[in-house]
Amino acid sequence: MQKITLITGSTLGSAEYLADAVEQQLTQQGYAVALFNQATLEDILDSECLLVVTSTHGAGELPENIQPLFDDLASQQPDFTNMTFGVIGLGSSDYDTFCGAVNLVEEALAARGARKRCDSLRIDVVESWDHDSLAEAWLPGFLAS
Ligand SMILES: Cc1cc2nc3c(=O)[nH]c(=O)nc-3n(C[C@H](O)[C@H](O)[C@H](O)COP(=O)(O)O)c2cc1C
Question: Whole-angstrom Cα distance, residue 27 to residue 70?
Fold first, then answer.
């Protein structure tokens, strides 16, 4: 697995910023990364390794920039049995629906047959500032599985 499709769900830019750092970390390790901040179904259709970096908004909802993709997933029901995926979430434990978008992403991709490579990373922005390092520490488990 050398190619990784990296997509972001972000409203205020933090998840996009984190995804930029993750892209850099992966590129340095020799992976070919295709990064999409407004991913469409077409962008991910042939991906064998998908990495989703998403914040949570509303009450446990997906950010607006990634919602259309998941609407299309639900309506078009593509076959993702060749896909593996991982999810990095940014959220706040001030909300009951902490990192709710991570659960939505996991469920939607699994429903299409994709396999989760490892436990998702749920970063609490209330507790931690160095999101890049947390992602960097999580990546080996994602890459190895
Ligand atoms: C209006 C609003 C609603 C939010 N709702 C949630 C939520 O339901 N669950 C959660 O874990 N975090 C929630 N958050 C926190 C954001 O996910 C967090 O601030 C994140 O870092 C924002 O990343 P972004 O800039 O990429 O959108 C909310 C933040 C705002 C401003």
Answer: 27
